[in-house]
């Protein structure tokens, strides 16, 4: 059984937050550490916040795999596909649009049934979403294990904190998979470029986190830069696709973009609260055990789960869109972007063609 002690009594390697005064577990060994999951100490809220988060993500994965809870693919609001319909339907633009639709409708009537089949509902691949869900489950379970076992010994503590980093890097890498895959589903070269790029970068960061020589305090800024660099890398594919589509509001990619901004705020807000030791720095000792849910690291944990959930919702938006609209949707978005801007020589307004009318 673990004994609880104060910060002054606890070994130096066990103290990470100078504002937490009590509730340090000692002398329990592996058995005591595992039993301490059901005790109150200064890691209880850290352990349980991520074990509960793990339960949520395990349920989301099961729900997706079995179809339980979402038997039907979510329908998309018509406005996402129509774009800014108001101006398109009036005046000369509206005339041109009606003429285009009429000609497309007659083409479709004449099309063979094989071509028509292509327009039918066909679910987008689910594996990129499972990569993300697996990354989230791995990160949350590694974190739960680390916070449970970190009190065993100096050596175990040094190993489990590295495992915690591995979980975080895996979550960052895995998060890019659904967003990059679904938004660049019809541009295979860019999709492969971004996915291979993020995976290689992620493996470099993983090696640095695992190698003993990079654990020295002098490498802390270097590790912080690598972590942030990996997260920042994700901005490129996101901005890349949003750039093409921002003029047509709302589109799934713009909706996803705002959700990802919210996710970024959760992660960065959590990292800031953690780094600044808010709120325990203002009242050391007050948030140790019973107020543990308010300690900076607990808030950081809760915000990580919230950020991952927002990301899951963002990926669902893209999946729902790709289930209903495949590469024809990209062609329409890109054509509107280039021709409306006159970048490819077209000065006239090219009307938006609703997918349902094709
Ligand atoms: Zn943690």
From TrEMBL:
Q: Identify the keywords attached in UniProt to this record, alphabetized.
A: Membrane, Metal-binding, Transmembrane, Transmembrane helix, Zinc
Note whether Ribosomal protein occurs among the keywords: no
Q: Does the keyword Oxidoreductase apply?
A: no
Q: How is the protein disposed in the membrane?
A: Multi-pass membrane protein
Which residues span the membrane?
A: 47-68, 127-152, 159-180, 192-212, 224-243, 255-275
Q: Which GO terms label this protein's molecular function in UniProt?
A: metal ion binding; signaling receptor activity
**By its UniProt entry, which InterPro entries does this protein fall under?**
AdipoR/HlyIII-related (IPR004254)
| GO cellular component annotations of the record | membrane
Q: Write down what this protein is called.
A: Predicted protein
Residues annotated to bind Zn(2+):
147, 297, 301
Q: What is its main location?
A: membrane
Q: Where in the cell is it found?
A: Membrane
**Entry similarity comment:** Belongs to the ADIPOR family.
Q: Which GO terms describe its biological process?
A: response to sucrose
Q: Which domain of life is it from?
A: Eukaryota
């Amino acid at each position: 059984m673990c004994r609880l002690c104060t910060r002054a009594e606890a070994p130096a390697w066990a103290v990470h937050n100078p504002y937490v005064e009590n509730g340090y577990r000692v002398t329990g060994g592996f058995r005591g550490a595992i039993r301490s999951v059901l005790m109150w100490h200064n890691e209880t809220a850290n352990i349980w916040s991520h074990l509960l988060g793990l339960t949520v993500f395990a349920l989301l994965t099961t729900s997706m795999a079995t179809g339980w809870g979402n038997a039907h693919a979510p329908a998309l609001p018509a406005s996402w596909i129509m774009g800014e319909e108001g101006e398109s339907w009036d005046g000369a633009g509206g005339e041109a649009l009606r003429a285009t639709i009429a000609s497309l409708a007659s083409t479709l009537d004449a099309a063979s049934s094989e071509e028509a089949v292509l327009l039918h509902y066909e679910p987008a691949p689910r594996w990129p979403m499972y990569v993300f869900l697996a990354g989230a489950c791995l990160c949350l379970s590694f974190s739960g294990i680390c916070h449970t076992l970190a009190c065993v010994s100096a050596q175990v503590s040094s190993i489990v904190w590295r495992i915690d980093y591995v979980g975080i890097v895996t979550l960052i890498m895995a998060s890019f998979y659904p967003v990059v895959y679904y938004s660049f589903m019809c541009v295979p070269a860019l999709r492969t470029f971004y996915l291979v790029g993020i995976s290689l970068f992620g493996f470099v960061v993983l090696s640095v986190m695992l190698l003993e020589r990079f654990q020295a305090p002098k490498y802390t800024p270097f590790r912080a830069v690598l972590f942030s660099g990996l997260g920042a890398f994700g901005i490129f594919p996101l901005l890349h696709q949003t750039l093409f589509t921002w003029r047509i509001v709302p589109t799934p990619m713009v909706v996803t973009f705002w959700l990802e901004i919210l996710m970024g705020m959760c992660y960065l807000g959590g990292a800031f609260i953690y780094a600044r030791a808010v709120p325990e720095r203002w009242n050391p000792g007050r948030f140790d055990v019973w107020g543990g849910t308010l300690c900076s690291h607990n808030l950081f944990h809760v915000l990580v789960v919230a950020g991952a959930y927002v990301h899951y919702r963002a990926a669902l938006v893209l999946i729902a869109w790709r289930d209903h609209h495949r590469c024809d949707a990209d062609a329409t978005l890109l054509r509107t972007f280039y021709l409306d801007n006159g970048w490819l020589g077209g000065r006239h307004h090219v009307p938006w063609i609703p997918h349902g009318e094709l």
